[in-house]
């Protein structure tokens, strides 16, 4: 398969990072995004929603290279405890490496969101940041998260919704086709809009969802680090759903808009929170 087509699907394949040809690329990808101000800002918001304060015991499911767990460890201090769990050995190795020889109330474990190896009610709160859209059974993972959080504790979930990306292009039909192609690559690409119902159906109380706008103004960045637009368009050309001319025009117009400072891409990140009922069965 040509390199370009491989990249299209890459960021939709976080479900099995260690089986990928270059797992380290997934770590680099996470670090690139973690460096963006808009990402730092929404993450801070989730720490507040989680009530990450001194002495708290918190869990970060799908912690990746551990950026957020490190921040949480600073917030809970020496009397608290943070555990970061990820299915990927590569992610956990990177996370551990970054805290080597540091005396933090923080531990990383390889583990699966579908079966967390913790006792019931073990944590004061749990977050899963951009994890559930990579799972084909998000409700099973959520049930596990709820099980390990104590009654009254907060659960905070963050996910995008890939059917909700808006791109300003004169070709409406091509834009829709590309975005649909992109969204359908994910196990659960429309997760963002489902979080409200997911938390409610799971019996959580005080459920809120804050749709947070994210704006990108650089076509190349969006292509390489967020959506793989060139590759998705190429795949549609390959399947005959878009003509060569349409693909060239569509990509050319977006690149041109970017050079002129006119490229505009927006999406909503859904930040959802719910509380485990005090009288849990
Ligand atoms: C997009 S990354 C997000 C990482 C981190 N939460 C962040 O916001 O930087 C998704 C992470 O979920 C992990 N993951 C995917 N499926 C998982 C599962 N079933 N159980 C635990 N972790 C999983 C991946 O290995 C990856 O590190």
Kindly describe this structure:
- With 281 residues, the protein is an alpha/beta fold.
- It contains eleven helices and eight strands.
- The chain has helices at residues 3-10, 23-34, 37-49, 67-76, 89-98, 138-148, 172-184, 191-201, 219-227, 229-239, 244-259; strands at 57-61, 81-86, 106-110, 123-129, 149-160, 166-167, 205-216, 265-275.
- Strands 1, 2, 3, 4, 5, 6, 7 and 8 form an eight-stranded mixed beta sheet that branches.
- The site of S-adenosylmethionine (SAM) has 22 residues, from helix 2 and helix 4.
- The site of S-adenosylmethionine has 22 residues, from helix 2 and helix 4.
Secondary structure topology:
Layout: H1 3-10, H2 23-34, H3 37-49, E1 57-61, H4 67-76, E2 81-86, H5 89-98, E3 106-110, E4 123-129, H6 138-148, E5 149-160, E6 166-167, H7 172-184, H8 191-201, E7 205-216, H9 219-227, H10 229-239, H11 244-259, E8 265-275
Parallel strand pairs: 1-2, 1-4, 2-3, 4-5
Antiparallel strand pairs: 5-8, 6-8, 7-8
